[in-house]
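User: For a benchmark we're assembling, each entry needs the component sequences followed by a predicted structure for the full assembly. Here are entry 17's components. Please fill in the structure.
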Amino acid sequence: MIVHQAYRFALDPTPAQARALSTHCGAARFAFNWGLALVKAVMDQREAEKSYGIAPADLTPPLRWSLPALRKVWNQVKDDVAPWWAECSKESYSSGLDSLARALNNWTTSRDGKRKGRAVRFPRFRSKRRARRSCRFTTGGVRVEADRRHINLPKLGRIRTHESTRKLARRLEAGTARVLSATVRLEGGRWHCSFTCEVQRADPPPAQPDVVIGVDLGITHLAVLSRPLSGVTNAVGAVPNPKHFARASAALRRKSRAVSRKHGPDSRTGARPSKRWERADQRRNRIHHRVANLRRDGLHKLTTALAAGFGTIVIENLNVAGMLSNRRLARSIADAGFAEIRRQLAYKTRWRGSRLVVADRWFPSSRTCSDCGAAKAKLPLHIRVFRCDSCGLEIDRDLNAARNLAALAVSSTTGTGGTGDLEPPCSNGRGADRKTRALCGQAAVKRPDRSADLPVGCPAGASRIRSCR
Ligand SMILES: [Zn+2]
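Assistant: Structure for entry 17:
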């Protein structure tokens, strides 16, 4: 299977190389801002001319926004606007103009309703001090050196890597990967280079191709699997939640206090931060990056173990964006990284030819008995143990949900969605076009008998009936 995959390596550039990397990213930013100013000027000019009543044929011709068109104009004027252009690789200017072309394209397609997701605004100028330092090389001497400790970039030359490049180098030597582009980026005070590659993957099929596993994501436990997996879960199938951010929060508070005591930037007065503030800020950011690295590592290990182990994986379609609007839970949910788990499972199951089933958002996985199938009307979040009213089953709430999810894929061979096949489109962007169902299955059948025992106008009976609408 041919996939696009990135290999990212931390770099150890010499001080001169680090300056050159910074210069290249600055050049990309310069080209972006130059192009944006040009686009704005032409748009404003045409607006003004229209307001004078000039005929459409006589207006200033519109500027084309594609990368080749922008690059053509840039090459015509670069001697005037950037006489120093030869200091950097031409790829850096191309990189800036490419991101401008993409930004403008995103804006127009979003405005015309052709782009999913939240509305994209018109691009803004990139600040010298705040913009992310990043630059992409697509042609020229982009290489991973054979010694597995160096990479080569146009104009920048050989740069030592902080870690071995063997994972990618082996593939390049075997001819199972081809480098498409290299992106350098300053992140967490360190330069990284990410190679986008076309990779010929031959992953072994899952160890248990006929086994279905249900995965219930949560906060008490990061995930509860419908059956234990040695090395990943405990005896009952729970994956502990490492809570990296919560564990780092004390250190983060301490470093943040140190930042607050120093002379920081002020957007009102335009005051620049002191050197000490910048150093303290870097020390704080290092913790943030460490948390992100720990989380990424843990999630990759979990999703790889799942994709390598089971033929079918069933997860819930969680409304993560909606859950993040709960201010009591948002931090814990963001710390767990639910959406990232689903994203990783989607492509890792594809690589191994296994199946990812995403349960309908309204599937009552927590409220249904995994033994007899009776559903409860409500199960508040604080009740951690599921007790079935019909068969008397007592089981951990999350394990019950995981087993229900697994049973979902077993009962319907097609599932609610195959690999990558998600919920049907609906009017609302986040799929929130329904209310939570109150009753279903056996409990719904029983309701009339129970309410018959209750006196007319009983508030308990009334509320039960209302809740099932
Ligand atoms: Zn039951």
